[in-house]
Design goal:
537 residues, Rossmann fold, six-stranded mixed sheet, 16 helices, 24 strands
Length: 537
């Protein structure tokens, strides 16, 4: 009974957030009913496109390299594509792997899949062939929509998997999304016999990515993003974060739901993003922290060439946001940075506002509506005192029910482990101290590599850094720092150690310092620590 009451409370609170932010109008029940019907009929993304077309009509919904599409164009195009896919034998129960960059083809494929009841597996555009083969086999993929640049990778897949090109720069022998939609009718399609759902993949930085299914449609999905962030409506969003990742997909969906023009680019170029913000007077920029760092690294002279004064929200998620990056962003763009902490498995955990990031750079903020964030000790007792580090557990109402391979995450008191360690302060702000499995014990002392990484990021000569624990014959474990210097910077290993020693205890000083030209990263900007461990074993 108590659980049901809590769930009802969260739903009511979510509805109030949606009303406050303008996503729904409770004074117009007909519109609310239409939105609910569309989501039940076509799933989260297909239903979103149908509802947005009904609400915003011929207003521009999407801009990419091929031009502009109105909300009605997106609806009609996805209807035609749904019919075309059905004619190719792809319907309810099919599993479609989508290997596409940010462009209209990805948006139309997701909407069409929802309208035919197919499950979508969002594939990482940075996959190597073995990863692609493993994931498609495990997820029982029966068709793949891939941009032309990735079609060579498809040779590793079973011959009975259908192949479709999502974006073609020239002639191709494979069927394309445009050709499949062809002359198909564009009026609404019948509801599928069942909803397909979606599978998001974990980052796979230490191995083959795991599949985390997303089947539920809930007002909490939007409310948790809207609660602590004043997302603009009827404006322009530049979505630089890849849409195969939850950050890009969720915020693109939210932008469309609020009637915004969403600007997409297939490849991330820091200066091109600034140009898009200026050209479209964009109010919102969605990216991952490494993209934000690359934009800031262009320097004040380049930044000054572009008018970014329309920006009201810079939204960063997907990996840790260092205190230095928080400060630099505020200096360059003002108080517009919002940081979301979450994961593929737990969904949203906390959101930090510009005021919180200015007062406490590096914080992940506070849980939004419907979310609970707690820290537990090694005996899984809940930590109640500020400043004490423990394993972070989350309840968001949207946490996954388990990986597609049958595995799951640890659960305590109905909360799911995020895999991170962290703590909260006396005023209720949360901080992530590092990955639970990356904490090392060096000479009997607990050491979190992320603390050292953040300190190194503050050094004026350091462009980026990664710190790992490695085996040590005398101390059990020690720290190894991988450092990328700014061009022409004068910094050696002793300088790195001196910088750390000046602020942290001796057992936190890296014994090894390795300088690199760049850190290996995946498409969402996360450092491939497994690759570093393997290469520098």
């Amino acid at each position: 009974m108590m659980g049901a009451l809590c769930q009802l409370r969260d739903v009511v609170a979510a509805a109030l957030v949606l009303q406050r932010r303008g996503l729904v109008d409770v004074t117009n029940p007909i519109e609310a009913v239409r939105a609910s019907r569309a989501l039940r009929k076509y799933g989260s993304f297909g239903g979103l496109i149908t509802h947005a077309a009904d609400r915003y009509g011929d207003a521009t919904g999407l801009v990419d390299e091929a031009g502009t599409l109105s909300f009605r164009d997106l609806e009609r195009g996805s209807n035609a594509l749904a019919r075309g896919l059905s004619r190719k034998g792809i319907g309810a129960g099919a599993v479609i792997g989508v290997l596409e960059r940010n462009h209209r083809g990805l948006t139309l494929a997701l909407a069409a899949a929802g309208k035919i009841g197919a499950k979508v597996v969002l594939l990482n555009t940075g996959f190597a062939a073995p990863q692609l083969a493993d994931v498609c086999a495990r997820e029982n993929v029966s068709a793949v929509v891939a941009d032309e640049e990735f079609t060579a990778l498809l040779d590793v897949l079973s011959k009975d998997i259908k192949r479709i090109v999502g974006w073609a720069s020239g002639a191709t022998t494979l069927p394309t999304l445009d050709a499949i939609a062809g002359d198909e009718w564009t009026d609404p399609v019948p509801a599928p016999s069942r909803q397909g759902g979606m599978v998001l993949l974990t980052s796979g930085t230490t191995g083959t990515p795991k599949g985390a299914p997303r089947k539920r449609v809930s007002p909490l999905q939007s409310a948790q993003l809207l609660d602590r962030i004043p997302w603009p409506a009827n404006s322009t969003y530049c979505v630089a974060a890849p849409m195969f990742h939850a950050t890009g997909l969720a915020t693109c969906s939210l932008g469309l739901a609020l009637g915004n023009r969403v600007v997409l680019a297939r490849r991330f170029e820091p200066e091109s993003v600034l140009a898009s913000i200026a050209d479209y007077e964009a109010s919102t920029l969605i990216l991952v922290p490494t993209m934000l760092q690359q934009i800031l690294d262009l320097g004040p002279d380049v930044l000054a060439r572009y008018d970014t004064s329309a920006l009201k929200v810079i939204f960063a998620a997907g990996s840790a946001l260092s205190p230095d990056l928080c400060r630099r962003t505020a200096e360059a763009f003002g108080d517009v940075l919002y940081n979301l902490y979450g994961s593929t498995e737990v969904a949203v955990a906390a959101v930090a506002t510009p005021g919180e990031l200015r007062a406490a750079p590096g914080t992940v903020g506070r849980p939004p509506v419907g979310c609970t964030l707690a820290a537990y000790d090694e005996q899984r007792r809940r930590i109640t005192e500020p400043g004490r580090t423990g394993t972070l557990f989350v309840s968001s109402g949207l946490s996954f029910a388990g990986y597609t391979d049958g595995g799951t995450k640890e659960s305590v008191d109905g909360l799911l482990s995020s895999g991170d360690t962290g703590h909260f302060t006396a005023d209720g702000l949360w901080f992530v101290d590092g990955r639970d499995d990356e904490m090392i014990v060096s000479g009997g002392e607990n050491v979190f590599p992320l603390e050292v990484e953040n300190l190194l990021a503050d050094h004026p000569a350091v462009a980026e850094a990664c710190v790992l624990g490695v085996d040590d014959q005398d101390f059990g474990k020690r720290l190894r720092a991988f450092v990328v210097r700014h061009p022409q910077a004068d910094l050696d290993a002793d300088g790195v150690r001196t910088h750390v020693r000046s602020a942290l205890a001796r057992h936190k000083v890296p014994r090894d310092v390795i300088f690199l030209d760049s850190l290996p990263r995946n498409e969402t900007g996360k450092v491939l620590k497994g690759a570093l461990r393997k290469e520098y074993r």
